[in-house]
Design goal:
Chain lengths: 494, 494
């Protein structure tokens, strides 16, 4: 009993042949060849990192750490974010759910020069390349998971499941910002992610920016198939249409760059259309925001098979696909063939000590590069706070302390109309903070009562989502309050 | 841009006029009048609990505790579970996500005599009634939330979100058992619930029983609309079809008993059809299990309006809808009218000191009543365990201790083929417990490799779901292991 065929009409269809310059796409491919090489070599090489002489087993790190499987997908998405940013001058950054794909994130940050902005020792030259590759997952180098030392990151991918909610927190009150969010198909099985798909129901397109969620469905988690990998296109379309999205499945492996560019352009145009309606006084009720499901093989471009077992397109590419490359002949030769396949010498010009011009031309202008967006690192500015003496209770008077806090919060909201929010699992009233409703609204966009009115209060019963929103909001420099379950007795008449 | 109209064909359509005896339905209504009265009076009355004389303010409890809003829905579902059990002699019990609806659960357990089985002081007579109502939320009485002292319960509704996964854990390896699971629409916003809808993808219909999930969509949480309340029928149908279900929306307020009876009968027949296929060697790949979305007003049959504000069908009925009934004239009179509306004197025969025969006739035979199902309380039987000396390592040998534990687990699985399971967030292999795969399978039903083969190992990346499954499995008397994130280094070649 499959889902009726006609439901597959829910999928967004785009003509990928129609668009854009073949030359642009070729340059994006070159960028990905470079970043895929860098990611792979970070995991494996401790010497001879530019393959200037034949690879030897001694060049291979003694301890192999890192996750290859997700890297090619991150590199694909990163390259196409660059392309979209460059074309439309969009303020955008990337939140990467598979934070263990640090080799890919670091590779892109290196190529675009953002690493060097914060760490001059990682400048774009041969010495910087050496340091990046040799130092990865090594004392004093970058760790195998994205951490807060990595530029442009507000999400570390440690406890799985929060990338999506964090992304939504970041775009709140940042009306021009777009956050592209990669959600891994393993991560997508978690509860925090499963309910975070609802987040758009709490985003007012007039006051906030937008998220482009990209479910990277490569089919496998650590050693097992994923739920989303086992769902066909119609099943995927039905589920996410049910969550309120327009669903584009990007999966043309013969022309993935054209498909990805077309899909992201569509997503961008849909976002601007929804925002323009809301900002010109004609808001759409329950707008269907765009999302992308990217279906590419896990560990794409990596080794195909080892000891008769499939690696590319299987869970075996999740971490280190050739774990004994330093000692096993077959693995070593596979590694050598794999690394050479990217022809990195064609991409990095040793005489110029820099990447080829075609690669550098794919990058957005410096101030728009994702690694240096100030939202991701600028210190927050303290709130304007009321003088609490104005709200003091006279000696002998009787007042609920929580009611008084509610009045104080109202003042804070009035004095900081665009940089203070309250996230709560529908426990605002029970915590007696309801004085806040005299100065602001709830922000539930799917209710005619509260849609398109802005509002500082966002209440969803998922504390995971409240937590993720707050993380995204505060790590981009703003302040939030998270009143959770109350301690007072619920039904007390006082 | 609504979802295309044709998608609403996804909804399951049933002819509710076609079915069953009007008399049966009338008796089910009488049962609900009784349980609704009992639930309301538990929240409010400390004296005169049978309304044998005119109500006085002094009869009202001084401290009002409890949640009325969810009770009428629980009573409706409980009555119809009884009806289904009686008709088909099904082993069934109920998991109630809104565990704060304890007045409803207790009312049904009292009427069916299950309370008295465990607590003779709550026998079905006037004295027992008095004790139940007066003692509710009072020292030595039952608390306002379901707890482990309440018969027939394996889920306390404390931390929201686990009812659904707990239900699935309970039916694993109980092939005849059906667990009806009420999921509140507030609870449904949580992450643990949002991903638990996927649980059927890990249920082999040949070896395990079934869950009938009932999303009770009454539209409101504590003081705000719910996400699911704001979704129309087509949106609901699309989302849950996407999760893999056949979706029946039960919402005919003019004939809710006929609708509910028809819907549950359909769900039961669909379950048996799927199970019969699997058990006769013709399993359906990706079977679409039935689910019900029940749309009834919050606090249905309670007070309609107070001080000009709507109560029934709004968040104001969530807890105590008339919080000042002991002191406020308007509230007191509303309470009196409300309680009298159930005409409890017609339902409980004082001369017989028992409920009317028509009510008693709605109950399943004693051994099938939901409050005394032995799965919910019987002590577990210890596993048969191997002699660990058989697996000992010789002094001087070298062996991974986790690999040795894996071999031990394999023996445990072989010796306990139907009462030991492993739940893991895809960390079994990384924990080096993979020896278990030599004696059993993974149980992912959406993969052709592992579907319809049974299997003791269930891996989903949601630790919330693993936790809920384990709770349901172990609280119904079996044993499980939950290997979570590993401590060893992942890529170590050793």
């Amino acid at each position: 009993m499959p889902i009726p065929e006609k439901v597959s009409d829910l999928l967004v269809k785009l003509d990928i042949a129609e668009i854009r310059s073949k030359e642009d796409l070729h340059h994006l491919e070159l960028l990905q060849r470079a970043t895929n090489y860098l990611a792979a070599s970070m995991i494996f090489l401790q010497k001879n990192v530019l393959l200037e002489r034949p690879l030897s087993k001694d060049d291979v790190k003694e301890r192999l750490l890192g996750h290859w499987g997700t890297c090619p997908g991150i590199n694909l998405i990163y390259a196409h974010c660059n392309y979209l940013i460059k074309k439309h001058s969009i303020p955008m950054f990337l939140v990467t759910g598979p934070g263990h794909g640090a080799p890919a994130s670091l590779a892109n940050l290196f190529v675009e020069g953002s690493l060097a902005k914060f760490y001059p020792q990682y400048s774009v030259n041969k010495e910087g390349l050496n340091r990046l590759i040799r130092g990865f997952s090594w004392p004093h180098g970058f760790p195998s998971h994205v951490n807060s030392e990595v530029p442009g990151q507000i999400h570390e991918g440690g406890e799985l499941g929060y990338a999506l909610s964090v992304s939504f927190g970041a775009i709140m009150d940042n009306p021009d910002l777009i956050v592209t969010c990669i959600v891994g198909d393993g991560e997508a099985e978690t509860g925090p992610t499963a309910t975070a798909w609802h987040s758009y129901k709490y985003i007012d397109p007039a006051e906030s920016g937008a998220v482009i969620p990209i479910l990277h469905d490569n089919g496998f988690k650590i050693s097992e198939e994923t739920i989303y990998g086992a769902m066909n296109d119609t099943e995927i379309a039905t589920l996410f249409t049910g969550f309120g999205y327009q669903v584009r499945i990007t999966s043309d492996l013969n022309d993935i760059n054209a498909d990805m560019a077309t899909s992201l352009e569509w997503a961008y145009q849909e976002i601007r259309r929804i925002q323009n309606c809301a900002r010109s006084g004609n808001p759409i009720f329950k707008p269907k925001w765009p999302m992308i499901v990217l279906r590419t093989p896990k560990g794409w471009t990596g080794p195909k098979e080892l000891h008769g077992q499939r690696i590319e397109g299987s869970f075996r590419s999740h971490q280190v696909p050739l774990p004994h490359a330093r000692v096993d002949d077959e693995e070593f030769h596979l590694l050598e063939t794999w690394l050479k396949s990217y022809k990195f010498h064609e991409l990095f010009d040793l005489s110029e000590n820099s990447f080829r011009m075609e690669i550098l031309e794919t990058l957005p202008k410096e101030e728009l590069r994702m690694g240096i967006r100030k939202e991701t690192y600028a210190a927050y500015e303290p709130l304007d706070l009321p003088d609490c003496r104005e709200l003091m209770i006279q000696k002998g008077d009787n007042e609920s302390c929580m009611k008084a806090v509610g009045k104080y919060c109202s003042k804070v909201i009035e004095m900081n109309p665009k940089r203070f929010r309250i996230f709560s699992p529908d426990e605002l009233v029970s915590n007696k903070l309801d004085a806040t409703f005299q100065v602001t609204n709830r922000n539930f966009q799917w209710s005619p009562q509260t849609s398109n009115k802005g509002g500082r209060i966002t209440e969803i019963l998922s504390e995971h989502t409240c937590q993720g929103w707050m993380q995204g909001y505060t790590l981009t420099g703003r302040i939030a309050l998270f009143p959770s379950y109350k301690h007072s007795w619920e039904s007390s008449p006082q």
